[in-house]
Structures are given as structure tokens and as C-alpha cells.
Design goal:
Oligomer: single chain
Mean pLDDT: 86
Radius of gyration: 22 Å
Helix content: 25-40%
Distance between the termini: 84 Å
Largest sheet: 8 strands, parallel, barrel
Length: about 290
């Protein structure tokens, strides 16, 4: 009888130990990681906490679609933009002394994607109302001079966004442009500090075979021109196939010097960026075909 009791007790201790180890493993997985250079999270607006997983993995920028709700306020799938995204992000920066991540990191880039077919001027006015109360924490532009903050809020929505924002000499919003904005006098880097494009807009490579020489040259040349114009480059939307193929695409983007690689596969991209030896300058010389 005593032996049976001892056996049961030992089993319970073993189960407790297993549970404790599992809990410890889960805690380690959820522990915030250091800042992850080159990362951009394509957030899922359906999630209760869209930003949570990206911030825990150290992502330095993110994008999310916004809408206009029935109450005339900016929303993320029916929930207030301020409550779901802006306030959690800015409160985090406030607690950390003016930075979203610890250490000397650049401002966190938050790209708000406007829906098609809405009055851009009205929606930009709503976004300004959301952002301006946090003037001490967001990047702003005063008479053409950019004053960095903990978070830089960019708006993606085409040329009309740029035109509306250009008329505001003391704004807290910036335009997220495209490669077509590079070199334009009406789209200075102080107004359009970043150019962003979906991979399929200009490229047809699917990651299965080596990238064609023409496409590699085009990629390197576009990034070089944007950098020479004082802008960061964000590319997203690589082929949604196996992670091996996506990793091949990510490697080409990194080699070309793309500043921010965007993907919805937050875990896979984070693992790639942390383990791959990402070159600071292009390693493969992109010669004209």
C-alpha cells in the first residue's frame, strides 16, 4: 500500500514538473524579443490584439487597413483605431522612455492603409484627430523639417494622400508612396519618406527558379534610386508558397538592400531575419542584362 501511494505521488510530481516545464516554455515563447531590423508586419485586423505578436517578436514597423465606421470615426474592423492600435503602441513608447523597443532604435513605422472609394480628405482629418493628441510621441513635420518621435505614422492611399498632406505645414502624418514618387519635386522625402510596393506590381518571379537577371537588376536599381533620393524601401507580398520559397524571396530583397521586408508570416520572417546573415550592402552585383 505504501509503495502504491509513493508511486502515485511520484506520478503527480512528474505531471506537475511536466506542466511547469510546459508553462516555462510558453512563457519563453511569449517573452519579448529584441528589436528586429528590417522587419515589417502585415497585421491581421481580425485579431483581438493585432499588434501584440509583432511587438513580442521585435518587429520595427507594421501596417493595417483602416475604415470609417458608422460613427464617423477611424476604425479597424468595427473597433476604434485609437483603442486597438494607436493607444497601445504609444502607451508602450511612453513607458519605455520614448521608444517602442529598448535601445537606440529608429521610430516605429505604422502604415495605415486607406480603403478605396472613400473621401481621402475626410479620412485624413479623422486620422489627424487620432494622432495629434500624442504630438510628443509621434514624428512630425514643421515647415519642412522632420522632428522624429517614437512612432512615425504613414498613410497609404495614392497621390491624393500626398496632395492633402502637402498642404499642412505642421502635420503629424506622412505619405507612404511608391517607386513612382522617387525623384518627384512634389513628393520630397520629408513628405514621402518611404516607398512601398507589392512584389507582384513589378516582378513576376515566383521563387521556384533563380531570379531572372532582368528582374534582379530592376530590383537593385529601384532600391538604389530610392535610397539616393533619401527614402526607405518596403516590399511585401512575396509568393505565398512554401516557406523555403518565401525565404528565397526574402533573401533577394535583403541582398538588394530593401529596408523593410513585409509579410503576414510573422514567425517565419522573424526566424529568417534573426538567423540569416543579412548583408548591409548588395552582395550579388546586379549588372544590366
Amino acid at each position: 500500500m505504501t509503495g502504491s501511494v509513493s508511486t502515485v505521488a511520484s506520478g503527480l510530481v512528474g505531471l506537475a514538473g511536466t506542466g511547469g516545464a510546459a508553462a516555462l516554455g510558453l512563457a519563453m515563447l511569449r517573452r519579448p524579443r529584441p528589436y528586429l531590423p528590417g522587419s515589417h508586419a502585415l497585421l491581421d485586423p481580425r485579431r483581438r490584439d493585432p499588434l501584440g505578436a509583432a511587438l513580442r517578436r521585435g518587429y520595427g514597423s507594421a501596417s493595417i487597413p483602416v475604415q470609417v465606421g458608422p460613427d464617423g470615426r477611424a476604425q479597424v474592423r468595427g473597433r476604434p483605431l485609437g483603442r486597438v492600435v494607436l493607444r497601445p503602441l504609444l502607451d508602450r513608447a511612453r513607458r519605455r522612455g520614448g521608444r517602442v523597443h529598448h535601445g537606440p532604435t529608429p521610430p516605429f513605422g505604422l502604415v495605415l492603409e486607406l480603403p478605396a472609394g472613400v473621401p481621402v480628405r475626410d479620412l485624413l482629418g479623422l486620422l489627424h484627430e487620432e494622432v495629434s493628441p500624442h504630438a510628443g510621441l509621434v514624428t512630425r513635420c514643421v515647415s519642412g523639417r522632420v522632428v522624429p518621435g517614437a512612432v512615425t505614422v504613414l498613410v497609404s492611399g495614392g497621390p491624393e494622400v500626398r496632395e492633402v498632406l502637402a498642404a499642412d505645414p505642421g502635420r503629424h502624418l506622412f505619405a507612404d508612396g511608391t517607386f513612382d514618387d522617387v525623384g518627384r519635386d512634389d513628393a520630397p522625402a520629408a513628405l514621402v519618406p518611404m516607398v512601398s510596393e507589392h512584389w507582384s506590381w513589378r516582378f513576376g518571379w515566383d521563387g521556384e527558379e533563380p531570379i531572372p537577371a532582368e528582374e534582379r537588376y530592376l530590383l537593385h536599381d529601384l532600391v538604389r534610386q530610392a535610397h539616393a533620393d533619401g527614402r526607405r524601401v518596403r516590399l511585401f507580398g512575396v509568393p505565398r508558397r512554401t516557406r523555403r520559397i518565401r525565404a528565397a524571396c526574402w533573401a533577394e530583397l535583403a541582398t538588394a538592400g530593401v529596408d523593410l521586408i513585409g509579410d503576414i508570416d510573422l514567425a517565419g520572417l522573424a526566424r529568417y531575419l534573426r538567423t540569416a546573415r543579412r548583408p548591409r550592402r548588395p552582395v550579388v552585383a546586379a549588372e544590366a542584362p
